[in-house]
Write a structure and sequence with these properties.
Oligomer: single chain
Number of domains: 1
Structural class: alpha+beta
Helix content: 25-40%
Number of strands: 21
Largest sheet: 6 strands, antiparallel
Shape: globular
Low-confidence stretches: none
Length: 419
């Protein structure tokens, strides 16, 4: 595998600011999975139709009473902000996770608020396709991504009454290379005049007085803050060293339209995995607010998901326990007949409400790595950008995809030309 090792390193060292290794091990593979052209259509169609369901449900639950929102797993701290709707779309950048089954594509979850896997699919996937002489299924999607971000910033600035050119800041935890470089990439593709990156620790919140607002370290008032990699549920719990509730005070400024926030809070409203249980319940009861077509879409793409284990205990089917808010497989448990079959070691999100979803096997493929050939389970990540299906790609790893899974580039086979 020395040849693979050398070629891989030579290839990825030319891509500036990309985290081809994470936690000191290989992350981005020097490999390219060949896919069919119809796969591209199927993923885009599934993304479009699944998002339409989420959007409709979001518009319904926005007006639900506080008790219902608490039942969806949101904290009391989030309640004052969940009904904010300042953009003509529910999320700017969202990502569905699909698994390809014998019955077609099925949704495992929807990360509507802070999805990563962006640079990989909008940029690096195309570079690998060129290397392997395959057609990039995400061709021109980076251009659409940049346009969508500019459009969102324009709407966000208008919503808070900023008529001049807005001062836009992209922010993340600077010490996390994936978060930082994701935001730098988004800033690059957006091409917003005067926009800059400011680490989260340097964002200043002035919560009272005539100067109330959000500022950078030079005292410049920020009009729109893009915090794409910082989860809103974490922001709401954020306090300074002297216990000042900086996260809550920041969100109060968003509520008062003193600063614009992207992704918007409407994206957070869709983030709870309890929404999947709500959607499945509406489907099973053929809720009158859903059309026949919408019911058919849910039956095609969604998995049975509940707020308790009882339905799976009755059938004996294998199922997965997931926290309402969680990422990278953390706190996920696979069970059957109430007994644990597999459990992730990390339990960072154990305090959240759980949902119970039908278990499905992820398809397996042989991949090439620095350690030789290996079998890996494949998960499809597909982006929805300002309500339009966009770039998609593949993670390869364990049956429960975690932060050690690989990025496996993919390309359309049979292409006569490539760029």
């Amino acid at each position: 595998m020395d040849n693979y090792y050398d070629k891989r390193n030579l290839f990825y060292e030319t891509i500036h600011g990309f985290w081809d290794r994470l936690y000191g091990v290989e992350y981005a593979l020097y490999d390219c999975l060949e896919i069919e052209r119809e796969d591209v259509f199927d993923v885009r169609q599934a993304t479009k139709e699944s998002y339409a369901i989420y959007k409709k449900v979001n518009e319904i639950i926005r007006f639900a009473p506080d008790e219902s929102l608490l039942g969806l797993g949101f904290s009391e701290k989030a309640l004052p902000f969940l009904r904010l709707s300042l953009l003509p779309y529910e999320t700017v950048i969202g990502r569905f996770d699909f698994v390809k089954t014998k019955e077609g594509l099925k949704i495992l979850e929807f990360n509507s608020d802070t999805p990563t896997f962006i640079r990989e699919l909008f940029d690096v996937n195309g570079l690998v396709c060129k290397e392997y002489k395959l057609e990039n299924p995400n061709q021109n999607e980076a251009e659409w991504l940049g346009k969508a971000i500019r459009n969102s910033i324009f709407h966000c600035a208008q919503a808070i009454g900023v008529t001049a050119h807005p001062y836009v800041v992209f922010t993340a935890h600077e010490e996390d290379i994936e978060d930082r470089e994701t935001m730098v990439y988004l800033m690059h593709v957006a091409q917003i005049k005067g926009a800059t990156f400011v680490p989260l620790r340097d964002i200043q919140v002035v919560s009272a007085g005539i100067e109330c607002g959000v500022y950078d370290t030079s005292g410049n008032k920020i009009d729109v803050l893009y915090r794409h990699t910082y989860p809103l549920e974490a922001l709401l719990e954020d306090v300074t060293d002297d216990q000042f509730p900086i996260g809550i005070e920041f969100m109060k400024l968003v509520e008062k339209k003193k600063v614009g926030l992207l992704n918007p809070t409407s994206a957070f409203l869709m983030q709870s995995k309890v929404i999947m249980a709500l959607i499945w319940g509406m489907y099973e009861h053929r809720h009158p607010l859903l059309t026949e077509h919408e019911l058919e879409v849910i039956g095609r793409y969604f998995l049975p998901t509940y707020l308790d284990e009882e339905p799976f205990l009755e059938t004996g089917d294998r199922y997965v326990s997931k926290p309402a808010f969680g990422r990278e497989g953390d706190t996920v448990v696979v069970k059957q007949n109430g007994k644990t079959i597999y459990s992730q070691k990390m339990k960072s999100y154990d305090h959240y409400v759980k949902v119970y979803q039908q278990y499905v096997d992820l398809p397996v493929a042989t991949i090439r790595t620095e350690n030789g050939s290996a079998k890996a389970h494949l998960l499809i990540g597909s982006f929805i950008i300002n309500e339009k299906p966009s770039a998609f790609g593949i993670r390869a790893g364990a049956q429960i995809t975690d932060n050690l899974s690989y990025f496996l580039p993919c390309g359309v086979k049979g292409a006569n030309e490539w760029t």
